[in-house]
Each structure stands twice: as structure tokens, then as C-alpha cells.
TrEMBL record:
<feature type="transmembrane region" description="Helical">
    <location>
        <begin position="56"/>
        <end position="81"/>
    </location>
</feature>
<keyword id="KW-0472">Membrane</keyword>
<dbReference type="Pfam" id="PF04224">
    <property type="entry name" value="DUF417"/>
</dbReference>
<feature type="transmembrane region" description="Helical">
    <location>
        <begin position="15"/>
        <end position="36"/>
    </location>
</feature>
<feature type="transmembrane region" description="Helical">
    <location>
        <begin position="122"/>
        <end position="143"/>
    </location>
</feature>
<keyword id="KW-0812">Transmembrane</keyword>
<feature type="transmembrane region" description="Helical">
    <location>
        <begin position="93"/>
        <end position="110"/>
    </location>
</feature>
<dbReference type="InterPro" id="IPR007339">
    <property type="entry name" value="RclC-like"/>
</dbReference>
<protein>
    <submittedName>
        <fullName>Membrane protein YkgB</fullName>
    </submittedName>
</protein>
<dbReference type="InterPro" id="IPR016865">
    <property type="entry name" value="RclC"/>
</dbReference>
<keyword id="KW-1133">Transmembrane helix</keyword>
Amino acid sequence: MVGTVQESKNQLSRIGYNVSLFGAALILLWIGIFKFTPTEAAAIKPLVENHFLTFFVYKIMSVQAVSNLIGAIEIIIALLLIFSAKFAVLKKYAGMGMIVTFLVTLSYLFTTPGMWKVVDGVPVTDFFIIKDLMLLGFGLMIVQNNK
């Protein structure tokens, strides 16, 4: 009986991990592809140009080229995640890519003017970035549990 309960917990844990893995890959892939559009390139410009690590990129690249580069990085991380399901050695690289990517994107909350507003007495922001908190956590989990 105990073995059966433990096996069920392990199976549920594997299912949860795979949902997180492929869910994160889907989010990164979808958003990465969208970065190749002029709409998204314009939308991320205020974030990128006001950040202490990325402010200079528009001096050397166009708005669309910067967005394309970010999109390519997101797509590469998504592919690393997908292929890490078969090749465990890729998990470490996918996790490190996620950590760097989502630390930077979360920091946009603090470097972009006008990001925070007070609505009905509650501080709010552009919530699309908040998803990166969960993705950062998953990246940390992948790097830590690199089996």
C-alpha cells in the first residue's frame, strides 16, 4: 500500500513537472515568435530603453532588430526546454537561460517609468510581466534539480 501511494505521488510529480516544462516552453515560444512583429517591438521599447543593462541597444540596433534578438533568445530557451525532456544535459542551460531572462524582465517593473499605478487604492502594474516570477522559479528548480 505504501509503495502504491509513493508511486502515485511520484507520477503526479512527473506530470506536474512536464506540464510546467511544456507550459513554460509554450509561453516562451509564443512570446518569442510575437517579438518578430512590429507591435511587440514597439511595446517592449520603453522597457528595454529604460533598463540599466539594456538601455544602449537601440544605439547599435533598430527597434525591430532588438525585438528579434530577444525573440530568438526566448525561442532558443523554449527549444532547450522541449529537448531537455529527452536530453537531460540541456536542463541546466534552459534553466540558466530562464533565470537570466526572467530576472531581467522582472527588473523592468522597477526600471520602467510609469509601470506602477494605484487603482482603487491598490498598486497595480502591467501584469503580463508577473508571469515571469513563476517562470523564474521554474528555472531555479530546473538548475537545482539537474538530473
